[in-house]
Amino acid sequence: MPIPSDLVIDKATEPAREAILRHLRQLIVDGALQPGEIIRDGEIAEHFGVSRTPVREALLQLRFEGLVIMKPKGWTQVKPLDRSQIEDLFRVIVELEMLAARLAAEKTDADTTTAEEINSRLEALLDEPHSPDDPTRAWQLIELNDRFHDSILDIAGNAVLTDALRPIKARMRRYERIYFDRATPIDHLSVAQHHELLSAIRAGDASIAAAVAARNLENSPVRAHYARPRHARPVTEGASA
Length: 241
Hints:
Arc Repressor Mutant, subunit A
C-alpha cells in the first residue's frame, strides 16, 4: 500500500486520529488508494510514527463514511465502486444541497462574503488562458466549486446536514476521479448560477435558492450515468493490490 513520503502529521497541532483520517480520506477520494486495495494499519502506523490505535479509529470512521470495508480481525479494504449507486448518490446530494440552500436563505443574518469571493476566484480561473485538455486546471475548478458549495453549508449553519452531506460528496468524488477525465463541467453558466443562488440567499427567498441549487447540479447525474470507465481496474473483495 503506497503512502506518499510527503504525508506527515503534526501531533502538536492536530490529533493523530484526525490527521490520519484526513490523509487516508484524501488518498481514497483522489484514487491514490484504488478500489479494492488493501489498507494495512501497521504500515500506516509505522509511516506516521504512531500506535495502531489512532489508525484503527480513523479506519472505523472511513467505514462509517462508506469508503472502506473492514473484516473483524482481518483486512481493511478500500470499498469497491458500484456504478449502479452513482445516480442514487447524486439524488441524495441534490436533495441535501437544496436543503442547504433553503436553510441559508432562511438566515436573517446570512453572510455571503466568503461564497462571493470563492465564486470570483472561480470566474477568474475560467477567464485565464489555458489548454482545453489540461486536467490540472479542470480539478482546480472543481475544487473551487466544491469550496463554494461548502460555503453555502457554512451559511446554513446546520451541523447535522454538514455531517451528512460531506461524506456522501466524498464518495461521489471517487466515482468522478475513477470514471471521468474530469467531473461535471464547471463553466461560466455555473458561475452565473452561483450568483443567482447568492442573490436568492441575500433576498431570503428559500424556494428560489433551492431551485437554483438543484439546477446547478442537474447535469451531473446524466454525465455520471453515461460515463465510460477511464482507468478503473477490476478487483475482487478481499484481494490485495
